Amino acid sequence: MAERIALACEGLTKRFGGFKAVDNVSLTVREGTIHALIGPNGAGKTTCFNLLTKVLQPDAGRIAYFGRDVTRLQQEAVARLGMVRSFQISAVFLGLTALQNVRVALLQRTGLGPKFWRPARAMGHLDGEAARLLGEVGLEADAGTRAAQLPYGRKRALEIAMTLALDPRMLLLDEPMAGLGQEDVARITALIRRVSAHRTVLMVEHNLSVVSELCHTITVLARGSILAEGDYQRVSTDERVITAYMGVEAVQEAA
Ligand SMILES: Nc1ncnc2c1ncn2[C@@H]1O[C@H](COP(=O)(O)OP(=O)(O)OP(=O)(O)O)[C@@H](O)[C@H]1O
């Protein structure tokens, strides 16, 4: 069977004033793979990710999701097509329990988001599904715990459960390991691998050992352009990639 392309962009460009933060980037994310966007600081990863996730509009280029042109669609519209950017920890309601937070995300999927201040009884039918999603991320025992009380790694897992509540076919994760300690990194790595079964994942990630362990394809950006692409073995031995990373380190050391 022919391999399908989940997400593709062509000639993606974004300027801030006269500066091109993303310069003519074309990449394809194959269905069912975990694909990473890496690169030294200031490479344009976040800008590129924000373009792909519809937070920013490109100045040039086009984006296709499963063959459909989504370049001009809003974030909510692409989410309805199954392309979902992860909830940020800041989007978690700290005063609500883990279960209630997932319920809020489920309401968003059903289009009832803005009306979620409704009697608890009226939302009870969502609790089964919310509990199942908490189980999927290993938080079943924390269903009744207020999000404020959850340790950071568990908040990250809750964030993933809330993202899964939107029933994504493709997950877009923005630095999922940021701020996590060693043990949590291992847990969240395993969790992403688990939830990526039957889904496609694109992630921006600084932690290269996680990238090497988890990702099938890696796109390396530097100065807004693609420097190299391939599996970890290939990109990590690419002279241009080594120079790009070392160059930045050398500049930082000298500063
Ligand atoms: N809103 C903006 N206005 C002006 N310049 C911006 C803006 N956003 C990003 N830039 C610039 O674009 C370049 C790429 O930034 P971006 O945040 O995309 O890089 P990055 O690879 O994600 O970096 P980091 O790893 O440090 O997060 C940087 O030089 C940055 O200063």
From TrEMBL:
Keywords: ATP-binding, Cell membrane, Membrane, Nucleotide-binding, Transport. This is Amino acid/amide ABC transporter ATP-binding protein 1 (HAAT family). The lineage of its organism: Bacteria, Pseudomonadati, Pseudomonadota, Betaproteobacteria, Burkholderiales. The keyword Glycoprotein does not apply. The keyword Transport applies. One of its GO terms (molecular function) is ATP hydrolysis activity. InterPro entries: AAA+_ATPase, ABC_AA/LPS_Transport, ABC_transporter-like_ATP-bd, BCA_ABC_TP_C, P-loop_NTPase. SUPFAM superfamilies: P-loop containing nucleoside triphosphate hydrolases. GO terms for cellular component: plasma membrane. CDD domains: ABC_Mj1267_LivG_branched. Residues 7-248 form the ABC transporter domain. SMART domains: AAA. Pfam families: ABC_tran (PF00005), BCA_ABC_TP_C (PF12399).
